[in-house]
Design goal:
5 strands; mainly alpha; 216 residues; binds iron/sulfur cluster; binds FE2/S2 (inorganic) cluster; 2 domains
Length: 216
């Protein structure tokens, strides 16, 4: 590979596909850290490849690139993300508001405590890096995983949402938040600097409180 200034791992993979092996399958879209589609394993570590500079990861003039862990490989560097996003649905990761289009806009104070918690988790780009970094997903493929639980936590704190009890029930089972061992690998690896570990700890608290109230 010819080295270039500011070269990213995605640039390397693209060069290989365009110049050396046109059969190589990989995924990308935005190239600027927005779409979440370019995540791969680089030297054994899950990363977003469009924002990972070769200089940062190269070891003895070599890098090793593979598909994300914990997801079925479709071909080469492309994994099947269906189970990852199916788990967002299982965790009730969709917003359900109380108001109709006839109502005025909801007024949520940006500095209010729940909104601050929403803001801490809302920038997830669905890249799957945390999911690939999580050993509990590897041991228990049914586990909802850090991204789906982080999404559930943002909605639990959304004062406009009315699905909370249903959502807490969905994340309370053996494959839910209590399966997390707080290894923090997800938080260490998240390219958006989110903390699914903190989100899951919040879910554990809310699930426990709901159970003590007899709501679950
Ligand atoms: S903190 Fe929980 S979700 Fe995150 S990597 Fe560890 S076990 Fe997985
Ligand atoms: S929480 Fe972070 S690592 Fe996980 S899918 Fe979202 S952006 Fe990617
Ligand atoms: S190509 Fe979109 S995040 Fe990397």
């Amino acid at each position: 590979m010819p080295r270039e200034p500011s070269q990213t791992v995605l640039d390397v993979v693209t060069y290989i596909q365009r110049k050396l092996d046109p059969t190589l399958a990989y995924r990308f879209a935005c190239r600027v850290g927005m779409c979440g589609s370019c995540a791969m394993t680089v030297n054994g570590v899950p990363r977003w490849t469009c924002r990972t500079h070769v200089d940062k990861v190269v070891e003895k003039d070599q890098i090793t690139v593979g598909p994300l862990r914990n997801l079925p490989v479709i071909r080469d560097l492309v994994v099947d993300m269906r189970e990852f996003f199916d788990k967002w649905a299982r965790a009730k990761g969709e917003f359900r508001g109380r108001q109709t289009k006839a109502d005025d806009f909801a007024k949520v104070e940006p500095q209010s405590a729940p909104r601050v918690l929403v803001d801490k988790g809302i920038e997830c780009i669905g890249c799957g890096v945390c999911y690939a970094a999580c050993d509990v997903v590897k041991w228990n493929p049914d586990y909802l995983g850090p991204a789906a639980l982080n999404r559930a936590w943002t909605l639990v704190n959304d004062v406009r949402d009315e699905k909370n009890l249903e959502r807490l029930r969905a994340v309370a089972g053996d494959a839910g938040c209590h399966a997390c061992h707080s290894h923090v690998s997800c938080t260490e690896r998240c390219p958006k600097h989110l903390s699914p570990t903190a989100a899951i700890a919040g879910l554990k608290r809310e699930v426990t409180k709901a159970a003590l109230r007899g709501d679950l």
